[in-house]
Write a structure and sequence with these properties.
heterodimer, A: 335 residues, alpha+beta, Uridine Diphospho-n-acetylenolpyruvylglucosamine Reductase, domain 2, Uridine Diphospho-n-acetylenolpyruvylglucosamine Reductase, domain 3, Enolase-like, domain 1, 3 domains, 5-stranded antiparallel β-sheet, 4-stranded antiparallel β-sheet, 32% helix, globular, B: 166 residues, Ubiquitin-like (UB roll), DNA polymerase, domain 1, 5 strands, 15% strand
């Protein structure tokens, strides 16, 4: 590893100054994503800026219109928060499925959202990578996962980003000029890069209170139940009071995919019986995902199998949110 | 750029250690190489196997994924701190009784993960035991015996609690 200096500023301005003044400075949150990358020689920061002393970033606060989660809150704290469990159950379900108990005790919400994209050719030891020419991520000119591509096609495997996007979360970004708030979907651009600079600090996530009777489900399909990245993950948020549904799918592209066409069709099916809605929307979502997904080569699974896993999971999620919303109370504690 | 060392204050098994450490030093290397506590094992070095599990401020962590500077101000418990050859911890006894040790490399990590669970709850369901151990791999695949051992230790705590309440 190449770290020469470890700093723990107590306020964000100090952190931004260090990041602005040093090209090789990075933000160090839990470290569970970046430390293996450093071990593999894929990242070589000289200065690590730890934000654990910035109080604003380490708390979960219930506000009038929603809840604010500091970016340095660790995943286990997310799974133990009573308000989140009651009101944003899909987010808590997602946090429970991340990696292992040991990793959830250290890994942070911000780190999970801004985790590196992964690829079976990139996330390898230096010695293994020495045998092949550099790919786009390594400063080279090719993508091994999609050989005809003119850019890196590594997939994004965050479990938290999927439900956060379905819940319409807003990201807070601190930069030299002050605090900026953006919808989480806008952080991810179409080419897989992030609309967040190296000097920017993700300080927190704001989740607006869902409508009354909202039901949400998160499902992660993976090869192993624990300690595994998703084959596919999805979040479905149904708000019957405003006749809206949110559908977001992860691990199928370099960013989370919103199935907006399927979402739009939902309001036209309101008077149809639930079984037919489930069948129709599942087919629509499958077709929409087929158009939007990125076909890449992964370890232990092919795209066809991924699509089938998606179909089964999506149908199950729809049944849960639709049947429950017609027969039961919603997730919202005010229901 | 010249490396700057950081002063850390880490309590390990009840003993306070104050040292200047490299920012590259992991908690695992600090325990094994600086303190000589080699009971904590290095497996994958990337947080995938759990062999290096220790308890930091009451929570199980992969010591290979924690930098020593991150552990500054923390209380760390390792396998050496929970029992001695003369006075084994109930979990250690249970692992021996149930034959839950094969090659033994994963055992310290398994025991530390199980200890966190039993410290919180002394009558866990099997599903909770499996969840608590889900970050620990056993290449000998001796999971059945390992789960039985944790159940046996839990039974010991239950009986102890019952007797003390009589």
């Amino acid at each position: 590893m190449t770290i020469k200096k470890w700093v723990e500023p107590a306020d964000l301005n100090e952190a931004v100054t260090v990041l602005n003044n040093n090209v090789n400075a990075i933000i160090y949150a839990g470290g569970t994503d970046i430390l293996p990358l450093m071990n593999y020689g894929l990242k070589s920061p000289e200065i690590c800026v730890s934000l654990r002393k910035c109080k604003l970033l380490t708390e979960i606060e219930v506000e009038e219109n929603g809840i604010r989660i500091g970016s340095m809150v660790n995943l286990v704290a997310l799974t133990e928060d009573k308000f989140l469990k009651k009101t944003f159950s899909a987010l808590v379900s997602a946090a429970i499925r991340v990696a292992s108990p040991q990793i959830r005790n250290i890994a942070t919400v911000g780190g999970n959202i801004l985790q590196e994209r992964r690829c079976k050719y990139y996330n390898r030891s230096e010695r293994w990578r020495d045998k092949i020419d550099s790919c786009f991520l390594m400063g080279g000119d090719r993508c091994y996962q999609v050989p005809k591509s003119d850019r890196c096609c590594a997939l994004y495997y965050s479990d938290l980003a999927t439900p956060l996007m379905a819940y319409q979360a807003v990201i807070e970004i601190w930069r030299k000029e002050g605090l900026r708030k953006v919808e989480i979907g806008k952080v991810f651009s179409g080419d897989g890069t992030r609309n967040i600079n190296k000097e920017d600090i993700l300080t927190g996530i704001f989740l607006p209170l869902p409508q009354s009777k909202t039901r949400a489900v998160f499902i992660k399909e993976s090869i192993r139940f624990s300690l595994d990245f998703p084959v596919v993950n999805l979040a479905v948020v149904n708000s019957p009071n405003i006749k809206k549904i949110g559908i977001v799918v992860g691990a199928m592209a370099p960013y989370p995919l919103r199935l907006s066409d399927t979402e739009g069709s939902f309001s036209r099916l309101i008077n149809v019986n639930t079984v037919d809605i489930v069948e129709t929307l599942t087919e629509m979502a499958y077709e929409e995902l087929k158009k939007k997904r990125l076909l890449v080569s992964e370890v232990d699974i092919n795209t066809n199998q991924k699509m089938q896993r998606f179909k089964g999971a999506f149908k199950s999620a729809l049944e849960q949110v639709l049947l429950n919303s017609r027969n039961m109370k919603g997730d919202n504690q005010y229901d | 750029m010249i490396e700057e060392k950081n002063f850390v204050n880490i309590t390990v098994n009840g003993i306070k250690y104050q040292e200047n450490v490299s920012p590259n030093l992991t908690l695992l290397k600090f325990l094994r190489e600086d303190l000589g506590l080699t009971g904590t094992k290095e497996g994958c070095g990337n947080g995938q196997c759990g062999a290096c599990t220790v308890i930091m401020d009451g929570k199980a962590v992969n010591s290979c994924l924690v930098l020593a500077v991150q552990a500054n101000g923390s209380h760390v418990e390792t396998i050496e701190g929970i029992g001695t050859p003369d006075k084994l911890h109930p979990l250690q006894k249970a692992f021996i009784k149930e034959g839950a040790v094969q090659c033994g490399f994963c055992t310290p990590g398994m025991i530390m993960s199980a200890k966190v669970l039993l410290d919180k709850k002394n009558n866990p369901e099997e599903e909770e035991i499996r969840e608590a151990l889900s970050g620990n791999l056993c290449r000998c695949t001796g999971y059945v015996k390992i789960v039985q051992a944790v159940k046996r230790a839990a039974d010991y705590y239950k009986k102890k609690k019952k007797n003390s309440s009589l």
